[in-house]
Amino acid sequence: MEVVCELSDGLAAVQKAEELCPDLILLDIGLPSLNGIEVARQIRNLVPKAKILFLSQESSAEVVKEVLNLGARGYVVKTQAGSELLAAVEAVLHDKQFVSKGLAGQSFADAADAHTLDYANPKEALASHTPAGVERTEIAGYHDVLFYSDDARFLENFSRFIEANLEAGNTAIVVVTEAHRVSLREILQAHGVDVAIAFEEGRYIPLSVSETLSAFMVDDMPDPIRFAKAAGDLIGRAAKTVNGKHRRVSACGECAPSLWAKGLAEAAIRTEQLWNDVARTYGVDILCGYPVDTFHGDGHGKIFQTICAVHSTVYQDGNTS
Predict the structure, then answer these.
(1) Do 250 and 170 contact (CB within 8 A), yes or no?
(2) For the whole model, what pTM was predicted?
(3) Which of 293, 321, 308 has its CA nearest to residue 149?
(4) At CA 32, angle to CA 278 and CA 262, rounded to 5?
(5) What is the CATH number of the domain that holds 231?
(6) Residue 58 · residue 78 · CB < 8 Å
């Protein structure tokens, strides 16, 4: 057995796990940037074959059940590490569940194998909520991000994205604030786009960002099952208007950026990862936009890097970076 990496930061752990694809990942609950539970949840999505073992001083039965339910294979209390850790590693590598003897009396048997849809792999959730008429595709969509300096740049790039897709015969889903929705419509009309006709045909679908978020957010985090249903229903609606072999569904919006604006960094990152699955599974082309100046504060550098990492291409005011 070889140790390939040691880290003390949650966000960095997620990034390295995706890069290295290790067989086994040892996690603590208390990590900076992202706690160990959220790190495990993201790793389950990004590196589903990796086995996760927790080593923590936390001995709450509720916490142990939660990490096992989301897919971890083992849990060792730090006070028992000297006598149990090697045995736990051996068990987990052989795909067996291991729980510290210090938690004796609690019922954790087969918890990892019985995790409910609340903690399902988002890709599995998407499959379970695929609406009629929507097919998986081998041609993955892209998921790009724009960091803009002011509203004028945001509107310029988003209107260009929408216009290009409508002209190509694609369906454009637009999930933005009310102010941006009105401004985008005015710009598109000024460019000669008949927004009213596109709306009537179902090829231009403007949605409220707050209402869209309310469909899948639970306790300030995106719920994978609710997200899969909301996204599946929306894509199913959009796909009905797409005719032609090379025509696609496109989407642009501010779901994750709105969460980031509220200080919900983990929720924003998780939402971006869920949209990644949509792009890959259904071939949807996605663009989202963040005000670049919101990342200038202390401690925001790693979050900025993580958001960049989960996108296909990064643009700043329309230029690739």
Answers:
(1) yes
(2) 0.61
(3) 293
(4) 55
(5) 3.40.50.300
(6) no
